[in-house]
Each structure stands twice: as C-alpha cells, then as structure tokens.
Specification:
This is Large ribosomal subunit protein uL1. Keywords: Repressor, Ribonucleoprotein, Ribosomal protein, RNA-binding, rRNA-binding, Translation regulation, tRNA-binding. It comes from Clostridium cellulovorans (strain ATCC 35296 / DSM 3052 / OCM 3 / 743B). The chain is of the alpha/beta class. It has two domains: about 10-65 and about 160-225, Ribulose 1,5 Bisphosphate Carboxylase/Oxygenase (2-Layer Sandwich); about 70-155, Rossmann fold, CATH 3.40.50.790. Helices cover about 30% and strands about 20% of the residues. The chain contains eight helices and nine strands. A four-stranded antiparallel beta sheet has the order 7-1-8-9, with helices on one face. β3, α3 and β4 form a beta-alpha-beta unit. The chain is globular and about 55 Å long. The relative contact order is 0.28.
C-alpha cells in the first residue's frame, strides 16, 4: 500500500457505518491521485447468483452522468443504421464489424447496441463479448429497435449493473470532481434501481453491505439501512 493510501485510510473509521453523503464525502476527501478518480459503489446482496431466478441486472441513467465519454458500437442495417449514425454512434455496421472483432481482436468501443434482427450475427460473438461484459441484452436496453433512444441514454450517463459470482454489484457513480452532493444523487438513483430489481426468490436481508471508494482509495462503509435516506 502506498503512502497516500495509508494516510487516506486513517480518515475512515472501519467500525462506523456512515450515511451515504458522509461516505461519499470521505471517498472524495481520500482521493489523492493526480487524475480525476472514479467513485465506485460496491453492494453485497443476499442472493445466490448461481440460480437464474436470483440474477440482479439492469441499467439506470445517472442524473449527473458518469463523467466519462462512451464509445458506442451499433449492429444495425438500413434505416436503423442511419438512425444510429444520426444519434451519434461511433461505429455502425453489421457482418463486417463482427468479422473485424473476430479476426482483428478489435475493441475500440465501450458499449454494444444491437437491433433484435441482428442478434443472429452478434450471437456468434458471445464467447468474445460475453466475458468482457459487452454482450447486448434486452434487460439493459441494448437490444432494441429504438437505437436512437438507446444511444442518447448511454451518452447521457446510462450505467449497467450486474451481480457477479460473489453476489456483489460493482458500479461507478461518477467522478471525484462531481463533489459529494452530485455523487449522492447518482448513488441514490443506482441504489433505487438495485432495490427495485430484488428477485422474488431472494430470501432474508437483500442489501447485506454497501461501500464507496475512489479508484485508488480506501472504502467507506454505508449503513445498509440508510441507503435511500
């Protein structure tokens, strides 16, 4: 651990469960890197992701965006391809883009959107896009004929969230430069979405633990009973 991390860790009491605003203020305060660090949220859920009926996945447009520019790749043809280009997609195409990904290991994009009729082409990329979290999915709004709206939401700060194998959701809620108040708005929007996405099959306590941290900083624990306060 570096000197800055050790100094920052002294500002956070590991035995205290902070309010969301207090925790975010600490995450900003303990961000000592020279770049504009991302503030990250980690939520441990009372679900067993091995079961299909306990998956937690979705997307939410953060009120203040992510502070990050996102490059979109859209698989579409004809009028839908024109709509995607007009909406500002960086890359639009069909089989030729799939071939480029497969043959050239090309990944100069952050999010993939596809019209439903293109999923036959995109499906062949499952083994490549899946592990990178780039596979389009109807639940996250990235498989749709309304490509213009999908791109506009992504550019406005739409963030996907998904529970991992260890029952934790890791997701960004903005940049250090946003300040604690704006980060709190984004935090609340994300937590509302996660709470709303609770599977019917989940039993017992759903929100087990919550923490926020900067990219290079220590985590501050949030009281799981006060995440929507």
């Amino acid at each position: 651990m570096g000197k800055n991390y050790i100094e920052s860790a002294k500002l956070i009491d590991k035995n205290v469960l902070y309010t969301p605003l207090e925790a975010l203020e600490l995450a900003v305060k303990t961000s000592k890197a020279k770049f504009d660090e991302t503030i990250e949220l980690a939520v441990r859920l009372g679900v067993d992701p091995r079961h299909a009926d306990q998956q937690v996945r979705g997307a939410v447009v953060l009120p203040h965006g992510t502070g990050k520019s996102v490059r979109t790749l859209v698989f579409a043809k004809g009028e839908k391809a024109k709509e995607a280009e007009a909406a500002g997609a960086e890359y639009v195409g069909a089989e030729e883009l799939a071939d480029k990904i497969q043959k050239e290991n090309w990944f100069e994009f952050d999010i993939v959107v596809a019209t439903p009729d293109m999923m036959g082409v995109v499906g062949r990329l499952g083994r490549i896009l899946g592990p990178k979290g780039l596979m389009p999915n109807p639940k996250s709004g990235t498989v749709t004929f309304d490509v213009a709206r999908a791109i506009q939401e992504i550019k406005a700060g739409k963030v996907e969230y998904r529970v991992d194998k260890t029952s934790i959701v890791h997701v960004p809620v903005g940049k250090k430069s946003f300040g604690a108040e704006k980060l709190k708005d984004n935090f609340t929007a994300m937590m509302e979405a996660i709470v709303k996405a609770k599977p019917a099959a989940a039993k017992g306590q759903y929100i087990k633990s919550v923490s926020v941290s900067s990219t290079m900083g220590p985590g501050a624990k949030v009281n799981p009973n006060k995440v929507l306060d």
